[in-house]
Design brief:
CATH topology of the largest domain: Methanol Dehydrogenase, Chain A
Distance between the termini: 65 Å
Structural class: mainly beta
Shape: globular
CATH superfamily of the largest domain: Quinoprotein alcohol dehydrogenase-like superfamily
Strand content: 25-35%
Number of strands: 39
Number of domains: 3
Strand order of the largest sheet: 1-33-34-35-36
Bound molecules: heme C
Length: about 675
């Protein structure tokens, strides 16, 4: 038997053996389901973003064409739909849920949770939603303001809604996951506010809370009355100083994986908050359970095991990247493993029975650590990794080697297809931790030095890598544009789909990386592709739109593609073999042109004070006022030319319903500092 066949049979055996264990999970979520549906974010519990469908395959993919497109009236399209019985469920923008006929693209219903109206300061975190969940006729979605909502899949009517957060600035951008009549959700915000990460499981029928697990300890001696209390007792010993005043971090903002073989749920936990250890953790300690994989009992939430990727993280190396489950032969024995490529640049193979590390190697350029010690499971840090008050160029950047766009795994090729970024960033601590006085709800919270700067178009490069988890080497790779390309989908037809920042959707040969098909979507392809079948026809669908989310916060490295948040549309595009549809007429990419604005007298003292104030605006309007796609480029806007117009937008919030938050607390002077800073950047000045 060839190695490839051995792979398939082990995988199928694992899936079959898995069925009778512990709970009775719904068969549509199991790895041996037929692929007609795509019922959860990663399709099955394994989170492998793999469809067994093979109608579209290497031999005929050249004949793939547009079946239909649907224009979306939303702001953010870093999202992918679910498909159940031929109906697509898509959450986009600020969690606006759409049900769409998968064959025709007809909108069946739409539900708007009106998140902007209630988000308040939490709106400042930007983002928008990346996905949703389905379970027994219900659709589940989280919102920017922290609600978890259950809708009737038939008609979009509200079944229940739970407020899962109670701190301004804590938001939900990730998809919930479901298992055993429970729906679990985490949240984000550790880069903006003092928060402790946690996950909560709710009853899918009633919305009643079943359990909550805090990821980092609170104030010593104070119990939460949650299942995490006993683990927090010993986790506390890994912290120093008065971390609880600053939150600690560990926000579970993205990846969670349910494992039916062990009836556990794995949480990919977030980075430290704030990043500066002088503030958060002055006498050292690993800071459990930040930047870790945390395994919990799915029924009770009880601690099972953890593996910490980045002890005492100071680089924003969260572990919130997908954890893909597989059973593979290692040294002739089938092992139940997970593949995990967190932000810190290593690709980990972990034994999911006990959390033991099997192997870890660098997936891209990494200089904060030499290697991962396989005995202890700990990184061997380089001498300069714990940068001081002078900037040190560290690889990877806080964007990570692998950010949230999901990897996929094909049991046929045995390869993991990872979208990766190769980019460094200079890190520097504050000169004195006592100077820490952050502007809340901004990246200033992290406690590092920041300045006035664009991210140049050549600051980093990206690749799609086909990673062999057995050899821990790339079998093939292709260079991709910019740093914000979509997640990947592997298929039974031997293909890997990925959407790119330049507006192209590609299908590559899963074995060789040969580029077999591409399609110009007329705007960036931002969502991870998914596939489903209806009436025997296989479809591939992707969300498109201007670059958004964190990449939209970058400057020229994202802006170079010319997608403007105001001008370019958001769409869902769906493909099938033999179709000949066309994407509706769309404005060409444009690079925004700064207004010189000679009519305004520039005050350079005000402008210089605006450098720090700009932290409030940077996430959406870009570093150095170069917008990457989340929001308009303010160098080109006439509004900052007058105080009155600027004040109406920024302090009175006249554009709030369009996603421009209201900054009611800003004084006239602060507004003037920001306004003059914007105008100075429009004239090309540096600080
Ligand atoms: C969460 C994202 C976000 C943040 C943070 C944000 N903005 Fe905006 N802003 C937007 C969006 C989105 C729009 C476009 C709204 C629309 O389509 O009308 C916008 C529009 C504007 C406009 C109008 C531009 C024009 O030509 O119409 C101004 C001025 C502006 N923002 C200033 C600011 C300032 C100043 C800050 C910081 C104090 C800031 N914004 C922070 C998202 C944001």
């Amino acid at each position: 038997m060839t190695k490839r066949l051995a792979f398939i049979s082990t995988w199928m055996l694992a899936a079959v053996v898995a069925l009778p264990v512990v709970a009775q999970p719904e068969s549509m979520f199991m790895d041996n389901s037929d692929g007609a549906d795509w019922p959860s974010y990663g399709r099955t519990y394994a989170e492998d973003h793999y469809t067994p469908l093979e109608q579209i395959n290497k031999a005929n993919v050249a004949d793939l064409g547009l079946a239909w497109s649907l224009d979306l009236d939303v702001g953010n399209t870093n999202t992918s739909p679910l498909a159940v019985d031929g109906v697509l469920y898509l959450a986009a923008g600020y969690s606006i849920v759409h049900a769409i006929d998968g064959k025709t693209g007809e909108l069946l219903w739409k539900y708007d949770p009106k998140a902007i109206a209630v988000a308040g300061k939490t709106l400042r975190a930007g983002w928008g939603i990346r996905g949703l969940a389905y379970w027994e006729g219900k659709v589940f979605v989280g919102t920017q303001d922290g609600r978890l909502i259950a809708l009737d899949a038939k008609n979009g009517e509200l079944i229940w809604s739970q407020q899962t957060t109670d701190i301004a600035g804590v938001f939900i951008s990730g998809p919930p996951r479901v298992f055993n009549d429970k729906v679990i959700i985490g949240n984000g915000g550790a880069d903006f506010v003092a928060m402790r990460g946690y996950v909560t499981a709710y009853n899918t029928d009633t919305g009643a809370k079943e359990w909550r697990f805090y990821i980092v300890p609170g104030k010593p001696g104070e119990k939460d009355g949650e299942v995490s209390d006993s683990a927090m007792e010993w986790a506390e010993d890994t912290w120093s100083g008065e971390w609880w005043k600053y939150g600690g971090g560990g926000a579970a903002w993205n990846a969670m994986t349910y494992d039916p073989e062990f009836n556990r749920v794995y949480i990919g936990t977030g980075n430290s908050g704030p990043y500066n250890e002088d503030i958060r953790n002055p006498d050292g300690g690993d800071n459990l359970f930040i930047a870790s994989v945390l395994a919990l009992d799915a029924d009770t939430g009880e601690y099972a095991w953890h593996y910490q990727n980045t002890p005492n993280d100071i680089w924003d190396y969260n572990s919130a990247q997908d954890m893909t489950l597989a059973t593979i032969n290692i040294d002739g024995k089938p092992r139940k493993v997970m593949f995990h490529a967190p932000k810190n640049g290593f690709f980990y193979v972990i034994d999911r029975e006990n959390g033991k590390l099997i192997s870890a190697e660098k997936l891209g350029t990494v200089n904060w650590a030499e290697s991962i010690d396989l005995e202890t499971g700990r990184p061997v840090e380089t001498p300069f990794a714990r940068y001081g008050t002078e900037p040190v160029l560290i690889w990877p950047s806080f964007q990570g080697t692998h950010f949230w766009p999901p990897q996929s795994y094909s049991p046929k090729t045995g390869l993991v297809y990872v979208p990766i970024i190769d980019m460094p960033v200079p890190f520097a601590r504050l000169d004195d931790p006592k100077d820490y006085d952050p502007i809340l709800f901004t990246p200033d919270f992290v406690g590092l030095k920041s300045g006035d700067g664009d991210v140049p178009a050549d600051a980093g490069v990206s690749y799609l890598k086909a990673w062999d988890p057995l050899t821990q080497k790339a079998k093939w790779q292709v260079k991709t544009p910019g740093i914000s390309n979509s997640g990947t989908m592997a298929t039974g037809g031997g293909l890997v789909f990925q959407g790119l920042a330049d507006g192209y959707l590609h299908a590559y040969d899963a074995d060789s990386g040969a580029d077999l098909w591409s399609y110009y979507a007329k705007v960036a392809v931002t969502g991870p592709p998914v596939s489903y079948s209806a009436d025997g026809v296989q479809y591939v669908t992707v969300a498109t739109g201007p670059l958004n989310g964190a990449p939209g916060a970058f400057g020229s490295i994202s802006a170079q593609f010319g997608w403007d948040s105001r001008i370019h549309p958001r769409r869902l595009l769906t493909f099938k073999l033999g179709a000949k549809g066309e994407v509706p007429a769309t404005p060409e990419p444009i690079v925004s042109k700064a207004l010189f604005g000679e009519e305004m007298n520039l005050d350079m003292k005000l402008a210089a004070a605006g450098v720090k104030q700009w932290a409030r605006c940077q996430l959406c309007h870009g570093p150095g006022v170069v917008a990457g796609g989340n929001a308009p480029d303010l160098r080109a806007s006439a509004i900052p030319l007058t105080f009155a117009g600027f004040e109406q937008v920024v302090r009175q919030g006249v554009l709030e319903q369009k996603g421009m938050p209201k900054f009611a607390e800003l004084t006239d002077q602060e507004l003037e500092q920001i306004r003059h800073y914007i105008r100075a950047k429009a004239r090309g000045l540096q600080f």
